[in-house]
Amino acid sequence: MDKVIYTKPEAMEDRFTHYCPGCGHSTITRLIAEALDTLKIQEKAVCVSSIGCSVSSYYYFKCDGLEAAHGRAPAVATAIKRCRPELYPFTIQGDGDLAAIGTAETVHASARGENIVLFFVNNAIYGMTGGQMAPTTLVGMNSTSTPGGRKTDTAGYPIRVCEMLATLDGPAYITRVSLHNPANVRKAKKAIETAFRVQMAGLGLSLVEILSPCPISWKLEPTNALKFIEETMIKQYPLGDFKVIDGVKALIEGVNPCSPK
Amino acid sequence: MSKKVLMVGNVAIAEGAVLAGCQAYFGYPITPQNEILEHLSKRLPELGRVFLQTESELAAISMVIGAGATGVRAMTSTSSPGFSLQQEGISYMAGAQIPGVIVNVMRGGPGLGNIGGAQGDYFQAVKGGGHGDYRIINLAPASVQEMMDLTMLAFELADKYRNPTFILVDGFLGQAMEPVIIRDAVTKFPAKPWAITGAKGRPKNLLDSFEMNPVNYPSRVKKLLDKYEIIRRNEVRFEGLLLEDAEIVVVAYGSASRSAMSAVKLARTDGIKAGLLRPITLFPFPEKALRELSLRIQAFLVAELSGGQMIEDVRLAVGLDCEVDLVNRYAGVPLPAEEILESLRGIALKQRKN
Ligand SMILES: Cc1ncc(C[n+]2csc(CCOP(=O)(O)OP(=O)(O)O)c2C)c(N)n1
Ligand code: SF4
């Protein structure tokens, strides 16, 4: 008999997405759905979508969903968790959403150590509005609002969100992953799953930054977009863990944090 | 037996929220409403409910959205500059039909203005303030008792219509101290099958204001507009004083209506047939009552703590054949009864001459 080794995750809706071909958002949708399946939390998960290309990401999961205004998803998720602690709210936010207009909400949800999950889709550009400069746009990188490339004298420098938030005492788990090849997609999958497990264990806030291709706004073929992440973006945004509190370490290593060492 | 206690207006709002079953409060400090936030910072955790001092009013209203979406009763309170920031979230709430109560204890403006009480946010609160086609029920208390009672009503109406509801009150009332009869706590709450509670044993619930398909969008907004029509029909509230034989009617709300009430009584002792119409709901506005009055009287006097905002709604309601005068104070200064009385005398004199 044939064995099914690859299929659509249970927690994912059977419908077309609105994402462009080669867009990282599609991969992220699938990875999140896989995590909901693995952890069996689809009935308790709540997708808080932000404004950006992830605007209607709640269409694609078989869990409850809610829209937040541009940048406000961490505040909305905070309230959901405070009012119904049994639910597992997660946000999906672009770089403009999380690191420009929503910087205050991001920093303060992190500082309070809210028990929520933030998925931060860093594509270094404003995808939805047609490719303008984002707070994460690389120096010299072209966008529709930085003709000739981002210049530091007028547009300043890109923000490293993980590094910045890792200085806070509030967050439990902060990590940066990338989608540029299958090995890294697998790492991203692991990080996404860990973030949910951190919330399930009540350990605090997780932020998973995902370097994600936007071939349309980068004006690159999808495969070249992946190459751009690997060869250029990672230099500005190095991959790895930036904050892993002891409880999370124990969780990752499969140790029961309560058992005597 | 119900208990009667002395209470500050802002605390009456906070206690009204507690009695109405408010499970979550989110707010950012601003004068003159701080007593609400401070009172609830102690009261709600004692009851095992949620209190959170937020990083901004933007975050506060976003949290009211998150909380209201889960089906619990939620509130924020602020004053004018913070109310401006909350317009974003209020528009989203209206669009996604998420209930919640927003209290604006108004102060002088524009800009940072002055912390004295005012009614200069009437346009912003009653006409919209945020973007798009939406309406908000506005309740305007005029006593500390009403601050408690209307706060409780605000939660009920918010749930009933799945719409944000405002308490619009001036800073003078927020700081006023008066006896209050403590009401019974609400124990029955409406079912909310639309709420975000986890997609277990039911199809998933989505709460949003966004419509990707432009063809579907008008019908979605139409549903909202139809709802506002029902609110207009069913929820008008006002109080009349000495209206039966009145020849001049003062229209005033909030603390201005209290000065107006004194002025009307004084005018009566002068032989001037004055009356008072006090809107309790600013949206929906008591336009029908005003129109009916306009058929038999010729003069209205609008008393407000602004440059003249509600007066536009009175003029719309009564039409061009009636005289509608304004007596006002603005920029954080109270309106004395004597001033309203002077205006009433002036109008009466003019009418006698005609
Ligand atoms: C208050 C507000 N300002 C601006 C916009 C327009 N807008 C929509 S999405 C977006 C930026 C999205 O970029 P990003 O967050 O990086 O997400 P991406 O689309 O790249 O996934 C902007 C500016 C808006 N919807 N609301
Ligand atoms: S514009 Fe970019 S981020 Fe948006 S859907 Fe297209 S590829 Fe994805």
Short description:
Chain A is an alpha/beta fold. Chain A is 38% helix and 15% strand.
Task: Write structural notes for this entry.
The complex is a heterodimer of chains A (261) and B (354). By secondary structure, chain A is α/β, with parallel strands linked by helices. Helices cover 38% and strands 15% of the residues of chain A. Chain A has ten helices and seven strands. In chain A, strands 2-1-3-4-6-5-7 form a seven-stranded mixed sheet, sandwiched between helices. The relative contact order of chain A is 0.14. Chain B is α/β, with parallel strands linked by helices. Chain B has two domains: 3-234, 3-Layer(aba) Sandwich (Rossmann fold); 239-353, Rossmann fold. Chain B is globular. The model of chain B has no long low-confidence stretch (mean pLDDT 97). The interface between A and B is large, with 38 and 37 residues. The structure holds thiamine diphosphate and iron/sulfur cluster. Residues 51-54, 70, 94-97, 121, 123, 125-129, 134 of chain A line the site of thiamine diphosphate.
Instruction: Give the SSE string of chain A.
Output: HEEHEHHEHHEHEHHEH
Strand tally of chain A, please?
Answer: 7
Q: Supply the CATH superfamily name of the largest domain in chain B.
A: Thiamin diphosphate (ThDP)-binding fold, Pyr/PP domains
Shape of chain A: globular
Stretches of chain B where pLDDT is under 50 for at least 5 consecutive residues are: none
Give the names of the bound compounds: thiamine diphosphate, iron/sulfur cluster
The fraction of residues in strands of chain A falls at 5-15%
Largest sheet of chain B: 8 strands, mixed
CATH topology of chain A: Rossmann fold
Oligomeric state of the chains? heterodimer
Q: Spans of chain A of 5+ residues with little confidence (pLDDT < 50)? A: none
